[in-house]
Design a protein that fits this description.
Layout (H helix, E strand, L loop, with lengths): L2 E8 L5 E2 L3 E4 L3 E2 L11 E2 L4 E10 L1 E2 L5 E7 L2 E9 L5 E12 L4 E8 L5 E3 L2 E8 L3 E13 L4 E4 L3 E2 L11 E2 L4 E15 L3 E7 L2 E9 L5 E4 L4 E4 L4 E7 L3 E15 L4 E4 L13 E3 L16 E2 L5 E13 L5 E7 L2 E9 L5 E12 L4 E7 L7 E12 L2 E4 L26
Parallel strand pairs: 1-4, 14-16
Antiparallel strand pairs: 1-13, 2-12, 3-11, 5-11, 6-10, 6-13, 7-12, 8-9, 8-11, 14-24, 15-23, 17-23, 18-21, 18-22, 18-24, 19-20, 19-23, 25-33, 26-32, 27-32, 28-31, 28-33, 29-30, 29-32, 33-34
Amino acid sequence: MPKTSTLYCNSTVNGIAFGTTTYANMVGYRANNATEAATQLKVYDTLTGRNLYVRVPTNSVNAATTIRTRVNGVDGNLSVSVPASTTGTFEDTTNTDSLVSGNNYNYQIVTGGGAGTIFPNTKSVQLEHADTLTTYLACAGSRATAAGSTRNFVVVGRNIDVAAVASSQYRIRFSATWSRIRIYVSANATTAASTFRSFKNGVNGAQSVSIGAGLTGEFEDTTNSDTLVATDLINYRLAVGAGGALTHTLMQSRITTTSTDTMVGFAGDGNNVNWNSTGFMAYGGGMESFATETSVQALVRTTPQTVRNLFVYVVANARLNASTIESRKNSAPGNLSVSIPTLATGIFEDTTNSDSLALTDTSNFRVILGAGVEDLEPSIVAVSLDVGVGGFIIPGFMTEGPAPRVRSQGNIVQSPQNA
């Protein structure tokens, strides 16, 4: 029986102007880029992509916008057309993409017209696997990491580098194989080699690639892998050589499992922001928040699903009142939640409760803060998702760096959602 995972991509702030052709990654923070290669996810399995889903809360472009998949730099079969100035949800439930090992997979967004901006906040595609459940992990966005520095990155979310290992580590809750770490380098001013590697439980993992001085393009470990068991902590690490900065746009890897089928949800960014209101957040992308929940909801297209192990890492906390981060199901509180006491930092995890999701259910996160304007700085919010026989990792919320903020998005007017 086929096993299905989901690629989630999200950003609530990266609007796309009229008359533009741009490209975006399939997993993690949606980082628009004019260079297609900088956004491409490489797949390593025989897969079928289906059910392209796009949620557009804001759209002032005065002509149609097309959002489609791309395979190896040419148009894929999945696409949706968003009419001029129209908001809501758009889905291709008819067509499929046939993918084989070595294919590059990404989105293309083409806007028409002569005025306006569109915000395609949430995008997802289901990947159908023959026998081994595969979850693709990626952090995206252009980032120049300084010469001579060693920095840590989350495995899914926004491409922000941090010095502290703990704030970038995700705790795995199932046994799996972690492999195929890959980095895309768009500019390189180094005069000595750099190293990109897997990092496991605070030490070097088995995977690594060397990036020669001044070299650009993709670099990948095709040989080594890390064996993961429940409670292992994982992240990416980049040690940049001397000289100048190394600029990268995508870090990716994959997790495979046959004994269980679990997917994990992440997102993240590193902005210094004051979390002082309730906000809703999507699977995939940055730690951005919308005041309107329908703007960030993911649609379930694979059943049965069980959401479990809500995991939160808090870097810093100046809040004088307790905070709560919870799962959401169909615009109501889910069963998963963590309470973060006043001034508390570190790991918070709900290992007891779970949410059962059915076909067409919606799911997302909510942050609830009490009175006050003090900073709460979570660096990871994530869940595990069991699908059918086992589970896989949902790209949901992950971040690294200083305080992410819940934004009210007051400059964006929410329009009624299309059915």
